[in-house]
Fold this sequence. Notes:
Elements: H1 13-25, E1 36-41, E2 44-50, H2 60-63, E3 67-76, E4 79-88, H3 94-100, H4 104-107, E5 111-116, H5 120-127, E6 133-138, H6 144-154, E7 157-160
Parallel strand pairs: 5-6, 6-7
Antiparallel strand pairs: 1-2, 1-5, 3-4
InterPro entries: APOBEC/CMP_deaminase_Zn-bd, CMP_dCMP_dom, Cytidine_deaminase-like, dCMP_deaminase, dCMP_deaminase-rel, Deoxycytidylate_deaminase_dom
Keywords: Hydrolase, Metal-binding, Zinc
Binding site for Zn(2+): 93, 119, 122
Amino acid sequence: MVTELQDSSRKDWDTYFLDIAYMVSTRSRCPRRHVGALLVQGKKLLGTAYNGAPMGVSDCSEAGCMIVEELEVKLLDGQEQMVKKQRCIRTIHAEQNLLLFTDRIDREGSTVYVTDQPCWTCANMLANSGVKEIVYHRSYPKDSDNVTQLMQNKGIIFRNLPSYEPPAQAGMNVIS
Length: 176
């Protein structure tokens, strides 16, 4: 009988895949936030993606960010208040690129590892993609409550790993 010994220096699977997602994010040229995403079936890596402008189009580092402002009504301390959100619309998000460049059959029952909690649009797309689990590190407070509720409604496992430490080579300051 062969017994697998636990090597304390060996990374667990969540750490291993998030490390890869962070290294993929270093390909992004977005000055506001580098995001990387992976598609994993079991322990097999099926695809990677990062946020950026469409292929062949000037990106934010070359042409500047295309910021739009949106207003949203939120309930804060029992009162409705208008909250301003800013989003760059020049880039395709990492999760969207991942869905564009992977096959539906590979997504069925798979896990997506992503450096950042998906925004509302990406969450909607992932909810319809066939994935069973989303694992992320950095929270995205602008859409967090709505996205968490959507994942609960769809029965998608939605895990945040706040104590995870990204590889030093993947570090960047994030603009909220």
